[in-house]
Amino acid sequence: MLIGFAIIAFVILVGYVVGRVGIGGPSAGFVLNRIAFFVANPALLFTVLAKANVHVVFSSFVLVAAISALATMGIYVAVSRIAFRRPATETTIGALSSGYVNINNIGLPVAVYVLGSATYIAPVLLLQLVVFAPIALGILDVTSRGHASVRTVLTQPLRNPMIIASLLGVVVDVTGLKLPDAIFAPFVLIGGAAVPLLLMAFGMSLHGSRPFRAGSGLREIIVASLLKAAIMPAIAYLIARLVFGLHGTALFAAVVLAALPTAQNVYNFASRYGRGEVIARDTVLLTALLAVPALIVIAALLA
What we know:
globular
């Protein structure tokens, strides 16, 4: 397990160095992220799910991920309403910061190198992009603009290439469709670029990051980060172990996925609506730093 973490850390370090030296120019990280998002990630998810036993993974992982995320976000909302008294929009961003995991940039490499299969991330990916994201966007629309575009909210998942690729992979697996190697092999080759692209792009994004700059929200950042790094994995363990009876690799995977840092999508949501940007930005960075020791502790206890 530690070898897997070491591989991830090394590639992130390479990305940081590349960003610091300036190889590829100032937009290199942005370009790598877009290539990964629109091309490499969908190819990888399609090839993995097309040959995976998705029945086993989807049965309990969706429920564990959903319950742990909703419970964690609920705790943040309660604390926010009592202690912070922030408007609904900022509270929504803070809640997402505490429970919306980075299943793409960090989760995918962790699944491949630590868990041994990208299959585990599919349920969480679909849960977040098909359920959580539309609901969050709807709340943000209503609280910040006074109305919501139902069409935009409902069709948002259908515009995400990773969701489309995942659903196509599930269809191939469930129907037993056998694709010729001439068709399947190119997707395998392209998908192989997903993990290094994501890790290097993430490393580039760390260069120049300056958390806790001018702006309010330090208490919210700390609370959201602690909920994300410690409380959510603990809830996931209790739900997975005591409610669903998971053990071994399945239990380990459920807790590891819950311990992933806050997704960068949360900052994108905050920027889009111009609310809670400081909270989202600094929570993304702080949880990324806390995730490493948290994952190592989880591996030592459960792996």
